[in-house]
Specification:
The structure is a homodimer.
Chain A lengths: L9 E4 L1 H5 L9 H13 L4 E6 L12 H7 L7 E5 L3 H10 L4 E7 L2 H8 L3 H17 L3 E7 L12 H13 L4 E5 L7 H12 L7 E4 L7 H10 L4 E4 L19 H10 L8 H16 L7 H9 L15
Parallel strand pairs in A: 1-2, 1-8, 2-3, 3-4, 4-5, 5-6, 6-7
Helix pairs in contact in A: 2-3, 2-11, 3-4, 7-8, 8-9, 11-12
Chain lengths: ~325, ~325
């Protein structure tokens, strides 16, 4: 096989974790395994496969150990899993072969407390413990920062709060930061300013953007982040992962939509978009049996069926 | 009432025309009338109410004369209608009180022929006739340019073809140009280059962007167009107007999504977003009784119901 030029952006596929944890169904472990294997075959190289948050809160992902144990470890593919605290890390490390432990903290104190019932300071203490153990095991640490563009409780979140938290997380041992617009409220100029502020303190090659499409702005925000220098973006196949509290409201940005945005602009992603479309179609039509919100996979499937394009006048002469 | 500062962007609402012509239902004239009246009450000042393309092709809008005759003409509101040729203009002028006749031509020869069964040159001759009559009647002319970012038949469309056609349309009497990404394939850098090329020949205050969301990029493209200097944008409430040939594929960008993009960035639109959300909810729930694709109206309705926000860890401590 001809060696292809290296990808210019890194797409971190979070569907099996951030997607499934926000969907009502609990898929069998074997189905999750097939999903991850299909995703690997598309060329995706970073896949978040599960969460070690307590099954009391995330029953959909209670089978994290079993899933992780069932997966092959293909060369060049890095699996990550969400790790909420030191106890969660015990579960993570019990599995073995997972390359990235993903911790999280909110830039908003209220949101952090509502989300995990502790202060940011206490959260950082857990993260310190997890990082120490992870590094001792040769595992990398990703730190999600939530509410970077706004908080459902506090409203505006100061840029300074985001930057300081990101710096603190790196000090505690995080190898990479994923900046999350948890409620999808960010807009492009805001994302540009956020990235610039972060870039002043942290090398951008350690920063990913995790945009939500609640208000339809995820791709516009990805574009702004890319123009500001970010080269890693989280996404979920088909846009899997609408918020369970607002049925029909979209959450995660669809991986195909992000891929096509880059491909059209000539930016190499390293992912086979058509293969991913196949995977999303399988997930939608054979497993979930309900529509996923992504735009590109639906348009691609329509094009395969030979759907014609619409035009203002309709066919033929008007009289 | 305190006088508000003037809007900074003009939103051209095309739902009653470009939306309804691409939906399967034919709504009664009384319902269309109520739709337009509700839209007027939101503060929208440019509304495309119907099309005088032959009912043979667009049966959904066969009642153009009756609808137009039934509408009041509120101060400050401009109604437009699609006019395919000189005969269509006879119907338009028979109504009276419509401020803008909207003609159209494709930047792609193949698309023009497939769409209206004549060459661009022949189309321009019709447009010349329409413009002469319209101006004699004190009516303004808007010219839609289709396939500005790509053609379903020819693929790439040269920037030069778009610019030259836009110039020609202005020479023939068009007062404004709406650049349409008919198949939604455009991406932000491309839109930026397109607008720059057009701006070199045409004052941007005569240019609007008509973006489609087929690949989820409409808002990213609107943002790019705004940053490049465009200040008028076409949109359709709730994203009404999916392509009839590709069920579920999205077409028109949702007006609420465009409004919220601007409002969040502090750009005045002159439109009451919540009132428009109410209108879209009415249209979706009481008239069409099926989901519309827009993001913002759905998120706003969810927020009104007090839906909580999602977060990575789930509530509570993980063990």
């Amino acid at each position: 096989m001809v060696q292809q030029a290296a990808p210019e952006v890194l797409i971190c596929e979070v569907g099996p974790r951030d997607g499934l944890q926000n969907e009502p169904e609990t898929l069998p472990t074997a189905v999750k395994r097939e999903l991850v294997e299909r995703l690997v075959r598309t060329g995706l190289r970073r896949i978040e496969i599960t969460s070690f948050v307590s099954p009391r809160w995330i029953p959909q992902l209670a089978d994290g150990e079993a899933l992780a144990a069932s997966l092959a470890r293909p060369d060049g593919v890095v699996y990550s899993a969400l790790v909420p605290n030191a106890r969660g890390y015990e579960r993570f490390s019990g599995v073995g072969g997972l390359g990235v432990a993903a911790v999280f903290a909110s830039a908003s104190e209220t949101h952090n407390r509502k989300n995990v019932n502790r202060s940011i300071a206490a959260q950082l203490e857990e993260i310190r413990l997890v990082s120490e153990r992870a590094h001792a095991d040769g595992v990398r640490v990703r730190a999600y920062v939530s509410t970077v563009c706004g908080c459902p409780y506090e409203g505006e979140v100061a840029l300074r709060a985001v930057v300081e938290l990101a710096e603190r997380l790196l000090d505690l041992g995080a190898d990479e930061i994923s900046l999350g617009d948890t409620i999808g409220i960010g807009h492009p100029r805001q994302v540009r300013e956020l990235v610039a502020a972060v870039a002043a303190e942290i090398p951008l090659d350690r920063v990913a953007l995790h945009m939500h499409d609640t208000y339809g702005r995820a791709l516009a925000n990805v574009q702004a982040g890319y123009e500001a220098g970010v080269r890693a973006f989280d996404a979920s196949l088909g846009g899997l992962g609408g918020c369970p509290y607002a049925p029909g409201a979209s959450g995660n940005v669809a991986t195909e939509d992000v891929l096509d945005l880059f491909e059209r602009a000539g930016v190499r992603t390293g992912v086979e978009l058509d293969a991913l479309v196949d995977t999303t179609q399988w997930l939608q039509d054979e497993i979930l049996r309900r529509p996923l919100p992504g735009r590109v996979f639906r348009a691609r499937l329509g094009a395969r069926r030979g759907a014609a394009e619409c035009a203002p006048g309709g066919a033929g002469d008007a009289e």
